[in-house]
Design a protein that fits this description.
The chain has 632 residues and is of the alpha/beta class. Helix content is 32%, strand content 19%.
């Protein structure tokens, strides 16, 4: 059949209405005649290139319509049914579906980002050229072809322009309140950011009969709408005494039943594109057992959007003897574990980064080929996703205990135990991630077959510690460094870390035609950094772990760095960057000379430390080529 659709053919260009050809339905396909479709910020991010997706593509993932036809094996809906289309179809029999976590369905997560349906195929084309699906729905069209588990029947009395909103904003916000935070009757809830999802979180909290539903935003119109969705109070997010206002509201409301109650039970963050988060742990009651719904930085071009998973480890004891309470490790997975669980690759994060740090190495045709390997990317302690000074409820800010790189490795070891992975095919990391990889090779030789360490150090040099101290002083010069956004501090930090330590003089000369261009370049880097909404105190804690790093102090080596490195049994690839002004090139070269099976390579780049970041196409190609050859 043929029908019309709004097609994105070029990033940044207007959508074009084109006639689309659809294949015959497969056994579990459902043909939906769309009646209404929402436009979500996620669609806009694809159009603007902020979120990577294969094109040409039909966008839209908030669709509602009428079932027109079904494949021969469909049993969940029938022609004539009114349905809402879900962007989360499930196979019902993979590892995660079997254990009751269908949101992590392996076939869906494997194929969705490739613009395919659950079986890995596309049903759509234009003039013989494959057309990609979006989020398994593609509702910006007259018709959608979806898997039967994406077609959710709804009562025919619901207007289609209301029903379509259930497909994303409603289920995310209401579900966040009822299914993730488990808001209970009588609770106090603060919803920070009242866009489509935030408003539905307000609605969800109201439906669960929360006593206080406090809506926080900087837009008066959104706050007025929040009242209609069930907010009992609204607050201007720009108020300097915002947290005090939240405390005052909850203290007065709850003192009849619980005199010590001074904070909300749940703080849900749904920041808009230009909003900033405020310190949620300061607003939540000390006895709360809930977490923020969102702590992830905005998705950037080239990042791979994967479902977040968390491993709760309770009281996590550090090698110092101190304990991080209520510790949770954040991680994502790419690809599928084979039956013998022998194809696992652990990827770890650099300082100040998230699980997206190595995305340029992950995926079809890349070094960490997801058709062959299962890549598990673990967020490091203190990066704002795994438990950190900025997110801990019981030990917030400077009450958080100091941790080490070996503590990061121990948290990752427990993750592998949880996943039933005895031996890693490989472990990969860059910068602080490379330092973790060398620690893995020393601490757990029997569990690691191959180690790939990019721009690493086996022992932190005095120079690197001095750079870290300069970055800390830049941040701590801002009075808000411990609890707030530290805007001025991050401005100074950008000059220290992204220019003086992150690049080389030759790189700056190549990128800037004049001194004025260099100053403008720094300002651009600062603006990009500001959008990440990073926490100063998290960076400070991670730099202290960085400074203390020395594989020679691993138990059993009594401070002997040479002996520790000579004990490594994993085949090891060490990649350095010429003129690295953060982790000196000589440190990587020295480690390679001591490790028995080490292969040493240097990136042919002017960028210095940033050469391992994959931001320059030539550097990314070199790293993918070298690592793929090493892992083969």
């Amino acid at each position: 059949m043929r029908f019309n659709a709004a097609v994105l053919e070029q990033i940044g260009a207007p959508l074009v209405v084109r006639e689309v050809t659809a294949e015959a339905l497969k056994p579990y396909d459902v043909l939906v005649r769309n009646q209404a479709s929402g436009l979500c910020h996620t669609d806009l991010e694809i159009i603007q290139g902020q979120l990577a997706w294969p094109i040409p593509v039909i966008l839209g993932h908030e669709g509602a319509g009428i079932v027109e036809a079904v494949g021969r094996d469909v049993s969940l809906v029938k022609p004539g049914d009114h349905v809402v289309c879900s962007w989360s179809p499930t196979c019902g029999h993979c590892f995660y579906c079997d254990r009751g976590q269908p949101i992590l369905c392996e076939p869906h997560n494997k194929h969705n980002g490739q613009g395919a349906l659950l079986d890995g195929g596309s049903r759509l084309s234009i003039d013989g050229q494959r057309l990609h699906h979006f989020s398994a729905v593609s509702s910006h069209a007259q018709y959608s072809i979806v898997h039967e588990t994406s077609a959710i029947p709804v009562p025919k009395e619901i207007p289609f322009d209301r029903a379509c909103l259930i497909g994303c904003g409603v289920m995310t916000g209401v579900g966040g309140a009822s299914r993730m935070a488990h808001v209970q009757a009588g609770a106090s809830v603060a919803v920070i950011g009242c866009g489509a999802v935030g408003l539905n979180a307000v609605q969800g909290a109201a439906l669960e009969r929360a006593d206080r539903v406090i809506a926080i935003d900087v837009d008066a119109g959104r706050l007025a709408m929040a009242r209609s969705f069930g907010a009992t109070h609204t607050l201007d997010g720009r108020a300097k005494d915002l947290i005090d206002q939240v405390k005052a509201l909850t203290a007065g409301a709850l003192s009849r039943r619980q005199a010590q109650a001074r904070r909300v039970d749940h703080a849900a963050h749904f920041p808009g594109r230009d909003q900033r988060w405020f310190c949620g742990h300061d607003a939540r009651r000390g006895r709360s057992h809930r977490h923020c719904f969102l702590m992830h930085p905005p998705l950037q071009p080239g990042w791979i959007d994967r479902p977040h998973e968390r491993l709760a480890l309770g009281d996590f004891r550090l090698e110092s003897g101190e304990v991080i309470h209520d510790f949770e490790l954040s991680y994502v997975t790419h690809g599928t574990l084979n039956a013998s669980r022998s194809n696992a690759i652990l990827a770890v994060t650099a300082i100040g980064s998230t699980h997206h740090r190595l995305d340029f190495l992950i995926g079809p045709g890349k070094a960490l080929e997801t058709e062959r390997y299962c890549v598990i990317v673990a967020d490091a302690i203190g990066n704002g996703l795994t438990t950190s000074p900025s997110t801990s409820r019981r030990q917030p800010g400077e009450a958080f205990p100091r941790f080490t790189i070996r503590d990061m490795v121990e948290s990752q070891r427990r993750l592998l135990d949880h996943l039933g992975i005895a031996i890693l095919h490989a472990a990969v990391g860059a910068s602080m991630g490379g330092m973790q990889i060398l620690q893995w090779a020393v601490s757990h030789p029997a569990r690691l077959a191959r180690a790939v360490a990019l721009v690493p150090m086996a022992r932190t040099t005095a120079w690197s510690a001095a750079v870290n101290e300069a970055s800390r002083r830049a941040l701590m010069a801002d009075p808000g460094w411990a609890t707030g956004p530290a805007r001025k501090g991050w401005h100074a930090w950008t000059a220290v870390m992204q220019v003086l330590a992150g690049r080389t003089p030759a790189a700056m000369e190549a990128e800037c035609d004049s001194p004025a261009d260099a100053i403008a370049w720094i300002e651009q880097r600062w603006q990009a950094q500001e959008k990440m909404a990073a926490s100063a105190i998290d960076w400070i804690y991670q730099t202290h772990a960085y400074d203390a790093h020395d594989v020679g102090t691993t138990q059993g080596f009594a401070g002997d760095l040479c002996a520790a490195l000579r004990s490594v049994t994993a085949a090891t690839l060490i990649v350095a960057a010429p003129d690295d002004l953060y982790n000196p090139t000589a440190a990587a070269r020295a480690a390679a000379t001591l490790i028995p099976q080490a292969l040493y390579r240097e990136i042919p780049s002017l960028l210095g430390h940033q050469a391992a970041g994959g931001t320059r196409a030539e550097d990314a190609a070199f790293l993918n080529r070298e690592i793929a050859a090493f892992l083969a």
